[in-house]
Amino acid sequence: MIDISKLTAQKAHMIDREIEKVFPKNGLKNLDDAVWYHLGTGGKRLRPILSIVTYEALGGKDQKILPFAASCEILHNWLLIHDDIEDGDEVRRDKPAVWKKYGLAHGINVGDYMAQKVFELILSSDVDNEKKFHLIDSMVKTSIRTAEGQTMDINLRENNSPEEKDYLDMVTDKTAHYLTVCMVGAAVVAEREEIIPKLIKFGSEIGPAFQIADDILDLTVGKGRKEIGRDVKEGKRSILAIHCLGKCSDGEAEKLLKILNKLPEDTTDEEVSEVKRLFEKHGSIDYAREKAEKMKQEALETVKTLPEELHEILEFFADYLISRKR
Amino acid sequence: MIDISKLTAQKAHMIDREIEKVFPKNGLKNLDDAVWYHLGTGGKRLRPILSIVTYEALGGKDQKILPFAASCEILHNWLLIHDDIEDGDEVRRDKPAVWKKYGLAHGINVGDYMAQKVFELILSSDVDNEKKFHLIDSMVKTSIRTAEGQTMDINLRENNSPEEKDYLDMVTDKTAHYLTVCMVGAAVVAEREEIIPKLIKFGSEIGPAFQIADDILDLTVGKGRKEIGRDVKEGKRSILAIHCLGKCSDGEAEKLLKILNKLPEDTTDEEVSEVKRLFEKHGSIDYAREKAEKMKQEALETVKTLPEELHEILEFFADYLISRKR
């Protein structure tokens, strides 16, 4: 049985050692220390682990995947650092967000620095130039799509009649691609390019499902913060909000939008509870759960079309990403 | 005689056409339109022109340098977009800065998007993989150094006894490398890698001199803004401030630091004039001019060691970058 905490325990050390190669522990004040501060707030190293185990399942026995795997973790983390600024989030994993601790200017610059280190890591890989290009090209395309998804996410918060399709397009761009790229990179390094289209299909099914699970977690246990309902405060057009708006009365919709459209700092916990009650009343949480489950089932069907050696780990990840409790 | 406005008139169209390939004119709202808004505020396209004319002087007769040259312009502009946020600058080239017009969240995201488009442009170049690899590697190293320089710049603003060496290290990292990379890329595409070390030497001399000229312009005509003394308001440890602090009395130093350390919005124009008077009294502006001139002369000596076909254009740029009036 695969177990995420065992995988983290096994692989985290290798990943962090790779990251240390490009972020000196005694580097520039307010730069490298800020990177390590952020990385030290936790995180499950999910993406590099997905990359490594995919590579190993494809027969990779060496360490050639490590720089790329580490670059996936750095990509994820610089996106978080900039996201926290963009969303006005002052807390990340129960600690002050980088921009709160180091100031806005350093916060932006630290993210920019890490975004370049993604490529420094890939360039340092012990693979031939053809593969390096493919890895860089995949990472560039992914990062562009992610920025487009972020634009769609911000734009959607000003939309008072959002549709589920807008949401699914947005999360596919914002979340799915940069989950998928971890597996794509593994296929490139393992010289199994022929399976990439199916990995992308799997990622495009499991990625949005992962984000839906995240939307639900925000209202139940909070997303790595003690705060419940942060998405509601930020006015995110989550799948819950979109479903509820489609089901509720005009009066309820007006109330819901009024709360969503308030500034985060002006939204009270009582208002979050009110929104949650509306979601429950109209079955929006159940709907989201079913939607995620359905997409997971589709992803599991896609897994069956992939080489057998990938089945166990991809089935595990599909399940873990959707069913995780935090 | 080379003339910058003629060069701009000749080359700007080619550069913009290249940029249009990666930023669709009808792209995502608050993303591609924000890029074009920013690019439309002006700018002399100095860096891509430097890249193109270097390539042409080295014998390049085709258009293979264009994607890289365009990528230099995009690099410059995303740095400006993020810099404006980091410095709290609300105005860029007499128009609202991107973050003021589109909001902070989009402002950060637009810069992140453009940073990736730098690589999309390079990857689209019609050159062999070996050269692409070299171009990407140079761009990544440059961008990392630039982020380090930005950290040093922000850190220096909290230093009440800054030294000239700190300043020169900072501007070399923050400004010189990404001016130099334009010429380095031209040498790579023109297959003249052997001259790169000397181009880097030239850039490391002319880059800081260019920044010193900029420091002076800020106090005389303003840097692309109607506002004079923005650097003073932002508390920048310019070479003027550092020289003055080394020459003035303890009382004057206290006064100078008090003004520099105020928040930009709390610094009055009268205080800026007071600082300017202190700089004049202690000969700091003349000192900076002489320093820039001396570095320019060193750069011109370096030009003599480069192939003759580069002399005219590099001499022109050395002179233009230091002697420009705005």
First-residue to last-residue Cα separation of chain A:
20 Å
If you average the pLDDT of chain A, what whole number results?
A: 94
Number of strands of chain A: 2
Order of helices and strands of chain A: HHHHEEHHHHHHHHHHH
Q: Can you name the CATH architecture of the largest domain in chain A? A: Orthogonal Bundle
Q: Which two protein chains have the largest interface (Cβ within 8 Å of the partner's Cβ), and how many residues from each?
A: A-B, 40 and 40 residues
> What number of structural domains do the residues of chain A give?
2
CATH homologous superfamily grouping of the largest domain in chain A: Farnesyl Diphosphate Synthase
The number of helical elements of chain A comes to 15
Shape of chain A: globular
Strand content of chain A: under 5%
Largest sheet of chain A: 2 strands, antiparallel
Radius of gyration of chain A: 20 Å
Write out the strand line-up for the largest beta sheet of chain A, numbering strands in chain order: 1-2
What structural category characterises the helix and strand content of chain A? Answer: mainly alpha
Q: What level of helicity do the residues of chain A show?
A: over 70%
Oligomeric state: homodimer
Give the low-confidence spans of chain A: none
Name a few traits of the molecule.
mainly alpha; 326 residues; 15 helices; Farnesyl Diphosphate Synthase; two-stranded antiparallel ribbon; 72% helix; homodimer; 2 domains
Please describe what this structure looks like:
Two copies of one chain form a homodimer. Chain A is an all-alpha fold. Chain A has two domains: 1-126, Farnesyl Diphosphate Synthase (Orthogonal Bundle), CATH 1.10.600; 128-326, Farnesyl Diphosphate Synthase (Orthogonal Bundle). Helices cover 72% and strands 1% of the residues of chain A. Chain A has 15 helices and two strands. Chain A has helices at 4-20, 32-40, 46-57, 66-87, 98-102, 104-123, 129-156, 164-189, 196-220, 230-233, 239-247, 250-260, 269-281, 284-305, 311-323; strands spanning 91-92, 95-96. In chain A, strands 1-2 form a two-stranded antiparallel sheet. In chain A, strand 1 (91-92) and strand 2 (95-96) form a beta hairpin. In chain A, helix 8 crosses helix 9 (196-220) and helix 9 packs parallel to helix 15. Chain A is globular, with a radius of gyration of 20 Å. The mean pLDDT of chain A is 94. At the A-B interface, helix 4, helix 6 and helix 7 of A face helix 4, helix 6 and helix 7 of B.
